[in-house]
Amino acid sequence: FTFCCSEAENFAKTFDVNEMNCMEYRYTIDTPVSCRITDKAVMQTIFDALCEVKIGERTDMRATDSEQSLTFVKTDGTTCVIRFEQRNLLYEEDAYQLENDAALWKALREAKYAWAGQLRAEGRSAEAVKLYKELAKEVRTKEGSEAAYYVIESTFESGDMDKTEAAVFAFSEREPQAYWLARAFILLGDVYVRKG
User: Fold this and answer.
1) How far apart are CA 92 and CA 22, in angstroms?
2) Taking Cα atoms as reference points, which of 146, 136, 131 lies closest to residue 184?
């Protein structure tokens, strides 16, 4: 945040999650989409991860089709926007390499995870599964394991028992977290019941 000067630096110094109205996360899957996150614990986690981001040198390497942004909105209406594309922070018209992009991916993973959970809670499972598929690429994290489970569950709900069975076994070989692996094996029991 100090890198972004004045507004963002002041925002970071005075950040209080209790003064946040929401956070908007925008990114592109096939088309630009956005989500409004209101969970204060999630906003704090994302903010904390962003504070770990270290900025490197200016770069001309750009990926114009992958811009993402996090907009924090305070209850008084003031905002702070942080824009990224792949491994770069965007500030004004320039791009700067990230020296520790793991912190950025943690922040964005938390945002996608919260968004997918909101969609799922609203009964918009198909939209949630798109996000869960992205998160499921890394099942060693809590978010990735849960996401992979929900992808498997959606396959089960579609009625494809053979594909569900194969997905459970493939999931088990990727060393997911124990809780979600146990849930997947319980679901596998339901697959065998349906298969007879």
Assistant:
1) 23
2) 146
Tokens 């791009």 belong to 95
Distance, in Å, from the CA atom of 106 to the CA atom of 132, rounded to the nearest integer, reads 15
- 124-172 pLDDT, tens digit per residue, is 999 899 999 999 999 998 999 999 999 999 999 999 999 999 999 999 9
The span from the CA of 50 to the CA of 33, in Å, is: 21
Give the E-state strand segments of the chain in sequence order: 20-28, 32-37, 55-59, 67-74, 79-85, 88-91, 94-98
Q: Which residues pair with 24 in a beta bridge?
A: 36, 71
CA distance 196 to 136: 29
CB of 59 within 8 A of CB of 95? yes
